[in-house]
Design goal:
The protein is α/β, with parallel strands linked by helices. Helix content is 31%, strand content 25%. Helix 2 links the parallel strand 5 and strand 6. The structure holds adenosine-2'-5'-diphosphate. Adenosine-2'-5'-diphosphate binds next to helix 1 and helix 5.
C-alpha cells in the first residue's frame, strides 16, 4: 500500500476549511488520519470525511502531535502563532494566510507555475492570495509566450473570499431588504447587497489596499519576475462564490490573439471560454465549484503596444485556496 499521511486542517469549519476537506476526499489524497481544528466555539461539532463523522477539536499548542501535513486557513494571526508549533512537531505546513507569503525562506507556490519551488521549503509553504492565483492562471501562459512587463487589473471579488460570516451577511442583507427591513452591516465596511465596495483589505501608504499590492508582490515571487509592475483595484461584489478579474497586460514581445489563445489552452488548470458572438465568456456563476479557471474576452489591448486584455474567472475557494493547497500537499 502507498504511504498514507496524518493530515490536520486548521480552520476546518471555515469557508476554505470545508473545501479543503472536500478536495482531499475528491482527489483521493492518501489520508491515514484527519485532525480537524477550529476555535473552541466549534469543539464537539463533527464534519463528514469519506462518509464518516470526524470530530472538530479546539486548536491548542499540543494539537500537532503526529501530524505530517497541516493545512492552515484560520487567518494570519493563528498561522503566525501555530504554524511554527506544527513545524516543530514535525509537520509540513501549507498556509493559506498572508502571514508568510513574502518571507524569502517560504516558497509561495502555484503548482502549475512554480511547483519546483516547493522543494526549497523549511517547513512552511505559502498558498497565494486568491485573486493573484486566479489572475496568474490566465497571465502566466501569456507571459511564457510574450514576456509580461506590467499589468493593470480590476477584480470583482465574491463575498465568500471574506469567510463564512461574510457569505451569511450577504444572504441576510438580501432577505432583510426584500422584507423591507434595515440590513445589518457587520463583516464589510458597508452594505454589500445591491452594492459594490471598492475596498478589499486595509489601505497602505501608497493609496492602494494590501490586497491590491499582493498581485505585484506575490506575482513577482511566483513568476520569478522581480521587475513585474501591477496596478490593481480590488472590488467586493455581491456574488456568493468565484472571483473575476479584468486584466490588461503589456508584454515585451509582439502579441497576437491566436497565439495567446493557444498558450492558455495548452496550460493545465485553465480553459478558454471565448465565443463573443454566442455571448460565451467566463462568469462566476459558471466557474463556482469548478477546479479550472476560465479565460475569455481575449483581445488586443487598444490602448498600448504589445498589450492583451482578457477576463479571467476562478473559484477562489478552490484554485484560490483549498485546491491549490491540496495540490501543494500532493507535490510535498
Ligand atoms: P470557528 O468556526 O470555530 O470560528 P472563515 O474564514 O470562514 O471565517 O473561517 C475561519 C476559520 O478559522 C474557522 O474554522 C474558525 O473556527 C477558525 N478560527 C477562528 N478563530 C480561531 C481561533 N482562535 N482558533 C482556532 N481557529 C479559529
Amino acid at each position: 500500500m502507498s504511504r498514507q499521511y496524518h493530515v490536520a486542517i486548521v480552520g476546518a469549519t471555515g469557508a476554505v476549511g470545508v473545501e479543503m476537506l472536500d478536495v482531499l476526499e475528491r482527489r483521493k489524497f492518501p489520508v491515514s488520519k484527519l485532525t480537524l481544528l477550529a476555535s473552541p466555539r466549534s469543539a464537539g461539532r463533527t464534519l463528514k470525511f469519506r462518509g464518516e463523522d470526524v470530530p472538530v477539536q479546539a486548536l491548542g499548542p499540543d494539537s500537532f502531535a503526529g501530524v505530517e501535513i497541516a493545512l492552515f486557513s484560520a487567518g494570519g494571526g493563528i498561522s503566525k502563532e501555530y504554524a511554527p508549533l506544527a513545524v516543530k512537531a514535525g509537520a509540513v505546513v501549507i498556509d493559506n494566510s498572508s502571514a508568510f507569503r513574502m518571507d524569502d525562506d517560504v516558497p509561495l507556490v502555484v503548482p502549475e507555475i512554480n511547483g519546483a519551488d516547493v522543494k526549497n521549503h523549511g517547513g512552511i509553504i505559502a498558498n497565494p492570495n486568491c485573486t493573484t492565483a486566479i489572475t496568474l492562471m490566465g497571465l502566466y501562459p501569456l507571459h511564457k509566450k510574450f514576456r509580461v512587463k506590467r499589468v493593470f487589473a480590476t477584480s470583482y471579488q465574491a463575498v465568500s473570499g471574506a469567510g463564512a460570516q461574510a457569505l451569511e451577511e450577504l444572504r441576510a442583507q438580501v432577505s432583510a431588504i426584500e422584507a423591507g427591513a434595515k440590513p445589518e452591516v457587520k463583516v464589510f465596511a458597508h452594505q454589500i447587497a445591491f452594492n459594490v465596495i471598492p475596498q478589499v483589505d486595509v489601505f497602505v501608504d501608497n493609496g492602494y489596499t494590501k490586497e491590491e499590492m499582493k498581485m505585484q508582490g506575490e506575482g513577482r515571487r511566483i513568476m520569478h519576475l522581480p521587475m513585474l509592475r501591477a496596478s490593481v483595484t480590488c472590488v467586493r461584489v455581491p456574488v456568493y462564490r468565484a472571483h473575476s478579474i479584468a486584466v490588461s497586460a503589456e508584454f515585451e514581445r509582439p502579441v497576437n490573439v491566436a497565439e495567446a489563445r493557444q498558450a492558455i489552452e495548452a496550460f493545465p488548470g485553465v480553459r478558454v471560454v471565448d465565443v463573443p458572438a454566442e455571448k460565451k465568456y467566463p462568469m462566476p456563476l459558471h466557474v463556482a465549484g469548478k477546479d479550472d479557471c476560465e479565460v475569455g474576452r481575449l483581445r488586443l489591448d487598444c490602448a498600448m503596444d504589445n498589450g492583451l486584455a482578457f477576463w479571467v474567472c476562478g473559484d477562489q475557494l478552490l484554485k484560490g485556496a483549498a485546491l491549490n493547497a491540496v495540490q501543494i500537499a500532493e507535490l510535498v
